[in-house]
Amino acid sequence: MKTASAEQALDAYFREGTSWDDDRVAEAHRSARVGWRVAGAGWVCAVTGGASLLLLMPLKRVEPFVVRVDNTSGIVDVVPVYAGDATIEQAVTRYFVTHYILMVCGFNFFKH
User: Fold this and answer.
1) What is the pTM of this model?
2) Taking the domains of the chain in order of start, what are their residue ranges?
């Protein structure tokens, strides 16, 4: 036969076990909540970074220019950019000059 004090001790033991289990479940929920917040912050950073790259991409533009120096006087000037309104002869000449420069600069002695 069980006495009243033994039953009270057993009930106290089960309450303590239940509270321990409740604490573990609450800790797991807290941990999951923190994990979701960190994941959400990561997504916000990733989306913000991607959006900023898309917005800043038009600003990245390379505009090459040629600086010409006169050998006799030393005067420096910038060659104007080709506007696209040249005659056929000028366009063909420009093509061949560009092709020649690419072939000469890209020559590899060990390749041939």
Assistant:
1) 0.43
2) 4-58, 66-111
